[in-house]
UniProtKB/TrEMBL annotation:
Record domain Peptidase M15C: where: 58-123
UniProt protein name: Peptidase M15
InterPro entries assigned: Peptidase_M15C (IPR039561), Zn_M74/Hedgehog-like (IPR009045)
One Pfam family, short name: Peptidase_M15_4
Amino acid sequence: MTSGFRFSNRSERALADLHPDLIRVARRALELTEVDFVVTEGRRSEARQRALVAAGASRTLRSRHLTGHAIDVAAWIDGGVRWDWPLYPRIAAAFKAAAAELGVAIRWGGDWPRFRDGPHFELDRAVYP
Ligand SMILES: [Zn+2]
């Protein structure tokens, strides 16, 4: 059984130049999830990363977004984005199930001990340097 959720054109554009294994995981996660989500950001330019760090929205210039190894999502409820924390572990459960099924090693930003980042998923550096 699948969710029946579909990626919007905006989500498809954000997915387009990511690592193919991450795209596969995101597509399967959307089939498995109970909470609909949109892809807000995929690959980032260095200029954008610098701007995010300057604004305090990111903490590193070595972001996995620069190489197409990271994706940010947002919960999509009744036609709008929601940032309520309880939605994100549910989306993460779908990503983790998808990754396990496909044999792809991912990390969820919500599992980081500091600066928890619920919308962020990335391919594991240990496997995808
Ligand atoms: Zn991110």
